[in-house]
Structures are given as structure tokens and as C-alpha cells.
Amino acid sequence: xxxxxxxxxxxxxxxxxxxxxxxxxxxxxxxxxxxxxxxxxxxxxxxxxxxxxxxxxxxxxxxxxxxxxxxxxxxxxxxxxxxxxxxxxxxxxxxxxxxxxxxxxxxxxxxxxxxxxxxxxxxxxxxxxxxxxxxxxx
Amino acid sequence: xxxxxxxxxxxxxxxxxxxxxxxxxxxxxxxxxxxxxxxxxxxxxxxxxxxxxxxxxxxxxxxxxxxxxxxxxxxxxxxxxxxxxxxxxxxxxxxxxxxxxxxxxxxxxxxxxxxxxxxxxxxxxxxxxxxxxxxxxxxxxxxxxxxxxxxxxxxxxxxxxxxxxxxxxxxxxxxxxxxxxxxxxxxxxxxxxxxxxxxxxxxxxxxxxxxxxxxxxxxxxxxxxxxxxxxxxxxxxxxxxxxxxxxxxxxxxxxxxxxxxxxxxxxxxxxxxxxxxxxxxxxxxxxxxxxxxxxxxxxxxxxxxxxxxxxxxxxxxxxxxxxxxxxxxxxxxxxxxxxxxxxxxxxxxxxxxxxxxxxxxxxxxxxxxxxx
Amino acid sequence: xxxxxxxxxxxxxxxxxxxxxxxxxxxxxxxxxxxxxxxxxxxxxxxxxxxxxxxxxxxxxxxxxxxxxxxxxxxxxxxxxxxxxxxxxxxxxxxxxxxxxxxxxxxxxxxxxxxxxxxxxxxxxxxxxxxxxxxxxxxxxxxxxxxxxxxxxxxxxxxxxxxxxxxxxxxxxxxxxxxxxxxxxxxxxxxxxxxxxxxxxxxxxxxxxxxxxxxxxxxxxxxxxxxxxxxxxxxxxxxxxxxxxxxxxxxxxxxxxxxxxxxxxxxxxxxxxxxxxxxxxxxxxxxxxxxxxxxxxxxxxxxxxxxxxxxxxxxxxxxxxxxxxxxxxxxxxxxxxxxxxxxxxxxxxxxxxxxxxxxxxxxxxxxxx
Lengths: 138, 372, 369
Prior knowledge:
Oligomer: heterotrimer
Strand content of chain C: 5-15%
Number of strands of chain C: 8
Number of domains of chain C: 1
Shape of chain A: elongated
Number of domains of chain A: 1
Strand order of the largest sheet of chain A: 2-3-4-8
Distance between the termini of chain C: 16 Å
Structural class of chain C: alpha/beta
Mean pLDDT of chain A: 95
Number of helices of chain C: 13
Strand content of chain A: 35-45%
Low-confidence stretches of chain C: 1-14
CATH architecture of chain C: Alpha-Beta Barrel
CATH topology of chain A: Rieske Iron-sulfur Protein
CATH topology of chain C: TIM Barrel
Radius of gyration of chain A: 16 Å
Order of helices and strands of chain C: EHHHEHEHEHEHHHEHHEHEH
Helix content of chain A: under 10%
Largest sheet of chain C: 8 strands, parallel
Order of helices and strands of chain A: EEEEEEEEEHE
CATH superfamily of chain C: Metal-dependent hydrolases
Low-confidence stretches of chain A: none
């Protein structure tokens, strides 16, 4: 039976920002991309770097030498160690999307009204009737 | 092992210009005057990278014992025919002249030497044996003059590549050299980069060593720097039909080069966003390596593992490296090459690397439009 | 020091608890931390003229690195100062959680290895060595210093080696692989003599700063991607030089650790050297045996940055060819291309090989027990 983990108030992560949610002994990086919330294991699938400490960026693309453009701003996380780029929405590595992928966790916004009926786990915050919360079911 | 197949294509063999005087008839009157009055004709242009009398520069039994070409590594046309073309039943052979004039600082003098070398090559070799092909000598450090020479020679389809020295003024991937690659792609010429240096810089990243053997051993790693330069600068993104043929590079470094290039790319991709696939794939599509000198050990199992790690049968091109002393007797191939690979290395890969080899199947085709 | 043990295998199945040796940890000074170790003259010199090295930019290399100046983003201490300047952070991020039993310090910065002013270089190296001992080794017996020396000035380098060698905190001699001339040339031999005399291995780590030559024989690269690659291609000629100059005939007990220099080129170089030596050995009559034998006997290799072959199993070939007793795990903490011991290998090794690679080879080379 999956458990509802309330990990943060929705307002705690504004668009373009991130935080690490502790769910049991698991660290999950939670991102707000243009109002949508996404969760990735905070362990880079390459060598284990803490993804959430990396840079939120777009993806640099090019039509050829001396041509530079950034697309999809805010949709990628660059690992703080080796700089590997991951699509926040899918967890896929840009360079090796088929075989390298950060594990995804579904992050849902739930209203306090619904949550207080329980059952839920909230390790780090108190759930009130008002307000929106981020929920990860594990 | 011996080459049992007939019709193999030798992608890197050398002929030596016997003397500066050989070239003078093909130079303008101004340069003939300069050559004569400055006594430039009185000493050879033997290259520091290939001292004429060094054991590596010429196999003993391939140096004429007498006659006008006495001691010249590889001798002349008759020697090439007897020692190489006939002896190994070759279909074609690509002649590369490694001439010391590529170290000259005077770009105009350097370019004049290249022009003379190319005309001499056509007259003394290409016209005399339909099996012969050549790379265009250019003074690479002035790309504009190099392009002029490419344009002058390009009509002669027997020229199948543009020859550049590995170590010149700057890494060859840099944009200053791109006019050369534009012209090469337009004319269907491969870019042939041959081992050696113009000595603009120390031959290693830690300065000049003491011995010739150090320079020569280290050449393989400098080819890695070359290939990384082509990748990082995006030469193949800009010129997608271009083939880079590394000559006398060795090939055992290919697997680790590919691994490291792939790994580094994943971390630095945003710096060079025109690399939009793993660099190993770009190498497999665009970069070729001539076989001799073989730098693998004699243990066949190791050669086999290296070939498996390369994981692509397209990369190696048969070469003799004539008259350099890379092997003894007739054992022109390393032991342990699998049969299917021999055919591919000997014929198919060369035809794919040099588009003009396939296009100019006959000598009359090749000569159509010749300006030389 | 209360370091927990760790399981080694990435799959977490192996039950063996193995403590590790890490052969490449980079400590660096907090701002001003070296001052107490410098005389007034050199403090003023530092403040007035700063470092004087062989490159165009005073505060960074001319190929700006990727990822936060080439550092792990998560290694910037919250209290300020550069990554690698906080002992607590090193302990909490790396030594304790990864079960590092032995950490070899490679003090690159301000060690004077690349400084052109020879007297300033001497002052810097002396200061840096004392600072390593006071700030790191004395705080944590897991950490072992390397005697940083400027090889361009062998006389001073030898004095520093002789001064530090009796102190057990120092386990090796560290010098830049990017000297003005290849390291095998005879003017460097006094350093080798001192190394052999004291029994300390020489650790060679490429400096980001250029020596006297462009980092490739083709000239200067354009991109950081290329410059990063030269850590291997400009390390190889150092090995060639040491072998071809006959250094190991002269100093048969000399041991060289190549650090952050790559290792997969070593077997390739061995094959190449042997093939060419067959033809050209008359040029180097002092090289009495096939060159590969010197490479095999006198060189050790730190593993970071680990090769990541397309087929992970290919790594085992390379390990076989280099030699299982010659490879030593290294992390390069706190730099961006850090190798984490839990994830660095994608191939399974038996416990004996794992022990050698992650611990025993380094323990044997540096005499850590």
C-alpha cells in the first residue's frame, strides 16, 4: 500500500526553484518548472552526485560551429559534479536518453482539505486545512 | 603476415624528391633565381622528422645501391614499381611527398615548392604508371595559398587528397584552416594528415625531448590531439562529407580515444553544442587510419581485442608506408588480422575514404580536365 | 578518527567491508592561510606582484573550465573560501561516508611548482608543505602529505626533500608533470637521486598551468574540452622521457605515480615504444631493455578520471594490460570530475582485485602501514 508523503508546501518552491525532500531514507529532488512539479531521485545515475545541488538550465543547442542558442529554459538540471544534463520532466540524460535516466517520482499537488482526512506522512511540516501541499506517494 | 589479395590499395606510400634541382624546372623564374643565388639548391630539404639516413626513413633493401638515386629512400619510379606495386600486386597506391619545405616560414616560397612538387609528381610518377595516385602538397600554414594550389590541381582526378602535416602553426581543427576543408569537400578530396612536425612548437606538451625516438613514439598521442581538435571545433559538423585520414598514426589508441572523448563530451557538451552525438560515432564516420606502422604488439590476441574494442571495420586503411622501415620481408600485414577485415582494409575502406579512387577507375577518366 | 566502513560494490551485495585509499585529494588554502608561513618579504611580494606563471591570465586558466570553475558545485564551503579549503567538509562529504582510510594530499595551488620566480617558488613550496602538515595531517592521521617541490630548481627541491623526508607525515614527492623540458632530462636528476635516497615515490600531477610549451605539439587548443584531454596526451611524453633518458637505469629503485594522468595509454605506449625501439635502439644505447619493462616496473597509475568504455567489460582488458598491482583508486576531490568509489566501476571485480585497486596497491607503494 503506497503511502502519501507530504514533503512541502507548494508555495515553498516557486517556479525555477528546487528543494530536496526527505522521504524515509530517500532524497528526492523536487522541481517547479513553470508551475508544474517534478521529482527525481537526488542521486545522479552516473556517479551518484546530488542532482538537486546542480544548475537549473536550458539546453544549449547549435546549428553548427559559432551558432549557439539556449532552448527550453529551466527544464534541465545539470549535475553538480560531472555536468551531465537531465531533462527534469523525464529524468532522461540528454547525451544518452536511452540508457541513462534519473529515477522519477510523481509529485502531486494536494489541498490541505483532502490531506487532513489522512492517512498521510508529513515528517517536516504540519499540514493545515488551508493551502496546497506537494505529495509524493511511495 | 603476407598480403595474398591482389588489387589492394596502398593508402600511404612515399616518394622522395631527389634534390631541389629536380623541382626547379617547375618553378617561376623569380623562384628559380632565388633558389640558385641563395644556394637553396645546394642542400637537401630532408625533414627533421624523417632524417634521410635514419633507419626508419628507408628500408635498407629499398634504397638504390647505385645510380643517380643512390641511397635515396625508396628510389624512383622503377624502384617503386619493382619493390611495391608489382611485388605486392597492388591495384593503386597513394603517393605522399613529405617534403621539408613545409617547415619554411616564407609562405610564398613554401607554396612554390608545393606547386613544383605536385607538377613533378604528376610528370614523374602519375603519368608513368596508371596505378599511382597522389595527395596534393600544400603549404598549410597559409590556407589561402593552400586553396589556390588545391584549385590548380583539383582538375586532375589522380590527386585524391590534400596532405597536411600533423604539427604546424596551430591545431588543424581551427577555423583558420577551414577554407582548405571547404575546397577539399567541394572537390571530393580527403584530408590526409601525416605524422611529422614543422617544429613550430616543441613536439610534446612538456617541451622538446632529447631523442628522435621520443618524438616518434609520442606521435600517436599527437594524433589524438588532432582528432579532438577536429571534434571540438566542429569541422565535421561544418563539412559533413569530409574524411580525415590519419597517416602513420598507429591505431591502438583508437578505443581509449573514443572512450575518453565520449566521457568528456558528456560533461562539456554545452561548450561545444555542435557535437550532438557521441564523439565516437563521429570518429567512426569521418576518421580513418592507415595501417603501417602497426603499433600493436605481436600478440595476436591483443590485436584481436583492440579490433573488438574499436567495434567498427571501416576505420583501417591498408598502407605500406613504403619505403619506411616498418616491417621486414613481405610481411606487410600484422599477424592475426581476420580474413574479412583484410578485404575491407585493402580495398573497400580505401575506396570509401578517398571518393576519387572509385570515381577515377581508369586513367583517362582521371586525366580528364587535368591542369598539371 | 571515527570513520565508518562502507561496502564497495555498486550493487550493494558484497558483504565485505573495505577501507579505501584515495590517491588524489586536493587541499587548498583559505584566503591568507599561507601568510603565517611566509616571510614579510614574500607576503609583500604576494600582495604586490602575485603569482607569475606562464599564461596570459592572472587568476584563471585561459580555457574557463566547466562546472563552477572546475569544482564540484556542492564543495563550496558555506562559510566561504574555495572548495578543498574546509577540512570539515572533506571529512563529512568524502572521508567518513566513503570509508577513506588513507587520503593522499596533492597540494597543487600555491605550491610554487609553476612559479617563474625561483626564490618565490622556493618560499611557496616550503610554506605549502608546512601548511599541509599543520592544517591537515596533524588534524587527521588519515591524511598524508606530499612534499611539493619545484623541479625547475633542483637544488632547492632537493633541500626541501631532505628536510621533509624524515617526517612520516610526508609519503611522497609531488611535482608538476608540466615542466619546461621533459622531466627525464638530466638537469632534473638530482630530484630523482633524492627520491631514491629517501625511498619516497614521486607523484606527478599535471598542472593546469602550462609549462614552457603549448599543451599539444600542434599548438594551443581552443576549447576546455581539448585542454582537459591533454591531461593524458601531455603526461605520456613525461613517461617516454623518463624511460628514453635512461632514468631507471640510473635510479633503479625510483617509483613514479602518475596522478590524474589517465592510465589506458600506458599499455599502448608500451607496445609503441617496444616496436619503435626495435628499429631505433642504437640512438638510445643506455636503454638496455625493452622500454615496456621500465614502464611496467617503475610506474603506478591513479585511476581518476576512470575510463568509461562503451562496453564496460573492455575496462578489464586495460586493467589486465596495465597490471592489477599498478592501479590505485583516486577521487580528485573536490574537483568536478570527481570519482565516487561507490559508482566508479561498472564492472564486477573479485574481492582480491578490488582490494588491490581500492587500497592495497597504494598502501604498498606509499608504505602506509
